[in-house]
Amino acid sequence: MTGFIIIGVVVLLVIGFISIYNNLVRLRNNRENAFANIDVQLKQRYDLVPQLVSTVKGYASHEKEVFMRVTEARSAAVNAQSIDDKIKADNLLTSALQGLKVTLEAYPELKANQNFLQLQTEISDIENKLAAARRFFNSATRELNNGVQTFPGNIIAGMFGFHKETMYEIAEQDRASMDKAPEIKF
Questions:
Q1: N or C: which end of the chain has fewer CB within 10 A?
Q2: CB-based burial of residue 76 (10 Å sphere; 0-12 exposed, 13-18 middle, 19+ buried)?
Q3: Does the pTM of the predicted model rise above 0.85?
Q4: Gap between the terminal Cα atoms of the chain
């Protein structure tokens, strides 16, 4: 009788172990899928950036530094390999595009150009989709991190190389401007 109890406990432990491991794998795959959705939106964004830059260049040809930053940031983003590298590169591109938006304020005739308006609408749409995809990615990352850091998942996670993953956050240099109240002019 004692032998059956011991075998029963061992079987339950093995089933629990397998269940926790499979849950961690599902959480990791969910996070990777969430980033794949971000990747699709980023690809569309990267494809639109050269069109935006070439449209703006005709109006603001002396703003070379801004165009260089956008082009270099886009190139870095396209060539990034890991999820963490892509997050960093996307933050750089976002910052460079914000610099481009500030430059555009000086060119009212450009803001009335139909090609520019269409590109601006497309980029705005992609930015909204990216924001939603980033929220989903951060939710998937939080779930994975909870699974990796809570007991008994942390024991199994450590045994199989699962670890806490980084969230998709805004860049440090942009955080200061986000904390500041917007300036409203009439």
A1: C
A2: middle
A3: no
A4: 85
